[in-house]
Amino acid sequence: MAHSIVALMTLAGDKDTGFWSMLILLAAGAVILVAICRGLVEDWIERTRGRKWPTASAVIDVVSVAFIEDDGIPSPKADLDGSHFKATLTYTYKNPDPQMGDYSRDFGDKDEAEAWANSYRGESVKVHVDPTDPSRSVLRNEDL
Hints:
Helix content: 25-40%
């Protein structure tokens, strides 16, 4: 896109084409940098969220796979660009009242998503429960 704007400005004969070209390229670079940093921060939050919370035993009761259509918005994670399948594990636990939570993972292939989800149906897992709000929990990747 930046190249198209630069090409149009060059054809228009603008004297400040070099300045505007540099400005457009810097803006595009800033957008890319923000997307990369956002992805890194999201990954860090996901890896650390709830790791020091107390744990409770949970059972994966429901598994599902949904087709997620490409919304046309580029993702900061390249492996999520385009349509994909979201496999979701829904679990229940008591702390002290019955609670529910879920964990999702994205796949490019429906059969792979279904096989992964079905492999956890009925399994017991350890979930991390927010001590200030027992209705909030996290099933961490390393606890699967």
